[in-house]
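Extended Data, panel c. Modelled sequence:
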Amino acid sequence: MEIIDIDEKVHCDFCNEGEDSMGGVIVGSNAVCGKCTKKYEYDKPDYKYADEIGVIFDKKKTFKENVLQYRELMYGSRNGTIEIMPFSDFEEINT
């Protein structure tokens, strides 16, 4: 497995943008920017799948600020990482 440190780069997992939008949410393992959150109404109390929303970010902070704070809280670092697993490793785990 290869691990790539992406430093403090932040992108919405839905639109690949949004770092300057306000707020956002965590849905499963996806960080969703404020624009996408608003578009899909993830932050509404009556959202049909509200139980899937792990965190609703502070709307007074940018999506980037929120994600960096979340990373630090959850992983002890503001840096993000991407893990790349060769298919052969995936096959070993799942057989």
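The first helix runs from residue 34 to 40. This feature is highlighted in the accompanying rendering.
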